[in-house]
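Journal club prep, notes for RB
We'll compare a predicted complex against what the paper describes. Inputs for the flavin-adenine dinucleotide case:
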Amino acid sequence: MRSVFQYLRPASLEDAAAWLEKNGASTVVFAGGTDLMPSMRKGEVACDYVLDISRLEELKRIELGDNLLAIGAGVTYTDLVESDLIHAHAPVVAAAARCVGSEQIRNVGTLGGNVGNASPAADSIPGLMAHNTRVEIVRQGRVLTQSLEEVILGPYHTSLKPGDLITKFLLEPLPSPYRAVYQRIGRRRAMSIARINLAVAAKVDSSGVIEDFRMSIGSMTPQPYRAFSAERMACGRKPEYALFAEIASTATQDMIKRAGVRSSTAYKKPAAEGLILKSLSELFNAPTFEDGDQ
Ligand SMILES: Cc1cc2nc3c(=O)[nH]c(=O)nc-3n(C[C@H](O)[C@H](O)[C@H](O)COP(=O)(O)OP(=O)(O)OC[C@H]3O[C@@H](n4cnc5c(N)ncnc54)[C@H](O)[C@@H]3O)c2cc1C
């Protein structure tokens, strides 16, 4: 059954936080509404108040500070794709944003909503994880930060409490000479949910050795995660096919351990290995074994 609720549009972030401090238990936060509206239509969300934060300018800022890139929770995918700061300091976030839904969805869907919804297949999350992102939350009038891993606890399950408001994401910038790649496999090219998605970022030193390597995987497991065992394997080594194959194999085994063996594993295992190889080849601008053989 659809619920009857009162629609509110606060004039400022301060007003929104003050409202939520008092009425958080009976209020649902509305950003772009692209996840929320379908859930409300299905009668899955019951509340007395819907608090529309989509016009709060304070949540739409993208700022580069002292070794920190701050992205407001109300920043849309289109904003990310169009931002020079994001392209320069978090290109993998821009690349992921470009893959989301359709132009209409990218124009209104926000980063805060993607994290608030916590879909295992969320496109923004692997990229944010590669940046060691921390989430700034206003809870009961106080500001706190949690890592993305602390916020996303499972499929559609977060650590957010009623009345919590995500205000921004704090990313470690990864400017050039870092390189980054985002790849996903979906059923179709556009308007499809990712079946497997992957963000990789790396820095290679002047002698051609990998100094830093980050890889986050989504969609295959209850929640996206950093593939630390594969990351450790890469540091201190040269980017070449033997290493890529080791990483693909280790990361895929780890993924199966986390997700458990399912009927889809027979398809997903080779698909994941292939996607990892392709991403690493693109990241390091190195041919895959097959390409090198031709
Ligand atoms: C046709 C279609 C295609 C889609 N394609 C993709 C896709 O390719 N990839 C993808 O990842 N997603 C996709 N989505 C899902 C959706 O667009 C994204 O998850 C989007 O980022 C949600 O943002 P929103 O602003 O619309 O969130 P909303 O729907 O407004 O909110 C989602 C949830 O987060 C909470 N929330 C929102 N903002 C905050 C905040 N600041 N603080 C606390 N809680 C908050 C809300 O209360 C709600 O629970 C698609 C959806 C549709 C309808």
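Talking point for the session: Confidence is low (pLDDT under 50) at residues 289-294.
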